[in-house]
Amino acid sequence: CEEDCLSYFKDLNTCKVAGDIFQDNAILSNPVAGLMVGILVTVLVQSSSTSTSIIVSLVSSGLLEVKSAVPIIMGSNIGTSVTNTIVALMQAGERNEFKRAFAGATIHDCFNWLSVLVLLPLEVASGLVSYLAKVTVSSFQLHSGQEAPELLKTLTEPLTRLIIQLDKSVITAIALGDESMRNHSLVKVWCKSSSFVSSVNVTAAATQNCSSELHCGKDSDLTWITQNITSQINTEKCRHLFVDSGLSDLAVGLILLASSLMVLCTCLLLIVKVLNSLLKGQVAKVIQRVINTDFPFPFGWLSGYLAMLMGAGMTFIIQSSSVFTSAMTPLIGIGVISLNRAYPLTLGSNIGTTTTAILAALASPREKLPAACQIALCHFYFNIFGILLWYPVPFTRLPIRMASALGERTAKYRWFAVLYLLVCFLVLPCLVFGISLAGWQAMVGMGAPFAALTIFVLLVNLMQSHSPTHLPKTLRSWDFLPQWMHSLKPLDKLITKTTALCCSPARLNDPDVVVVTPDTTNIKPESKKQTQQWYDNPALSLPEEISSEPRVFRLRGLERCNSTPL
């Protein structure tokens, strides 16, 4: 239900802008701009199934060309992973669970970004993905059909119709460029109307020949013709919360956005709590053994492909990869599903979500059916090529190693997860989209130095870990740079001090809080220095020789309980 409310917010507040964007194909002719548009739109609706269905509908209506739609499809694959990354934040209370959950959520991001970095330049240079989709469509005798029902919408629509209903005729007219509909409200007020036919006498030209007309006459010097005029009369109002609210579309959209996000976060917290309470002890061990066990040798390699089929099948049933991967993220956090098993399940979910776009394409008009099916199959082939690049050979499974590194970084600095979300799904797409609007010259001028610097840093890091002797002494470590350029510790200290200023006074003045300060009189100076480092960042592990406990807060009356320090 909250996903539908989020999509309603998108329709209320972005369709007027989207109409202008999609009418101006000069913007989307730039593949980088199209990629960023796909990311941002999918972040708004939090479902790649929804965004790809919108793109297929735009292609089938002739508003968007297939060549321009392919990068948007690739961007929708990246944007859909924002939901399960948000779900991972709900497990930030326990460090190890948060590390596993964030790694399981970002493995989807890493796969999609790596696939786009390889396949988007290949598509721009050769058109491989769109060509294969075109050949596939031409080899089948396709006929237009009815749109397939959506299971989740069938379950949630009775409730969402009581909250908000949209006038889709206004949305369609705006997207088609009808300027007269721009000032019409998108909130639907009248649900039933009837047609009324009336006869009106209309004055005709003086040269009109009345002998050839059935309803024609002359009155002195005037010639008149009787015409039938059909008018629509509204008979019944809709029944939803905003039918007579008098609020603007923006106000209604913001109310729906706030309420839906509140419901979404509440549901996510409840899911995590329920799973933590149910999947413990022997139950967790049994489930973990069943899901993570491989087939006996020599058929162990088939286990991952079977997991792909399971992920594709589950996503096809619920028609939403966001729902499937979000439900899987808490299970990864509590250790029921391993990261190695979550990877093929996520890849299978990517395949399953393409069926929604294919079913939407099959409902297109006959004249636009080939183009709609072509762009839907581009989504399918993009995910297939991504799997071929990053799964069959164990050495090429880079997303697992990248996600594990992100999980370790997030466990050490928990604020890094929020920074990652803002940069990858908001700041970076908006920045690149703005630069891409300036033209290829601006993109090359700013992108080429950044890409060269990134490649150089990656190569130096690789040589530092494997063969540092082949590097100059200066480059064998990054210590010659300022600390803020090669470490997150300065930023972590700043954030820690900022949060301490906000939280410590209120907590220290609380009469129910007892401050337990360790005795450091017998600790060596080196150990005191390490203890101070531990204070600066609690994720750093203390050495074994430090026997004193860190400064913690305990509630009065719980001294005998086995309670977790706050």
Q: How does this model look, in words?
A:
Involved in actively transporting phosphate into cells via Na(+) cotransport in the renal brush border membrane. The cotransport has a Na(+):Pi stoichiometry of 3:1 and is electrogenic. Keywords: Cell membrane, Disulfide bond, Glycoprotein, Ion transport, Membrane, Phosphoprotein, Sodium, Sodium transport, Symport, Transmembrane, Transmembrane helix, Transport. It is found in: Apical cell membrane. It catalyses: 3 Na(+)(out) + phosphate(out) = 3 Na(+)(in) + phosphate(in). With 566 residues, this protein is mostly helical. The protein is 63% helix and 8% strand. It is built from 22 helices and five strands. The strands form two sheets. A three-stranded antiparallel beta sheet has the order 1-3-2, with no helix packed on it. A two-stranded antiparallel sheet has the order 4-5. Strand 2 (216-219) and strand 3 (222-237) form a beta hairpin. The radius of gyration is 30 Å and the shape is globular. Residues 1-16, 512-518 and 527-566 have low confidence and may be disordered.
| Cα-to-Cα separation, first versus last residue | 35 Å
Task: Report the principal-axis shape.
Answer: globular
Please tally the β strands and state the result.
Answer: 5
- Secondary structure category: mainly alpha
Determine the strand fraction and express it as a percent band: 5-15%
Write the H/E string, N to C.
HHHHHHHHHHEEEHHHHHHHHHHHEHE
Strand arrangement within the widest β-sheet reads: 1-3-2
Largest sheet: 3 strands, antiparallel
What is the count of DSSP helices, taking H or I runs of 4+ residues? 22
What's the Cα radius of gyration? Answer: 30 Å
Arithmetic mean pLDDT: 76
Catalytic activity: 3 Na(+)(out) + phosphate(out) = 3 Na(+)(in) + phosphate(in)
Function: Involved in actively transporting phosphate into cells via Na(+) cotransport in the renal brush border membrane. The cotransport has a Na(+):Pi stoichiometry of 3:1 and is electrogenic.
Subcellular location: Apical cell membrane
Family: Belongs to the SLC34A transporter family.
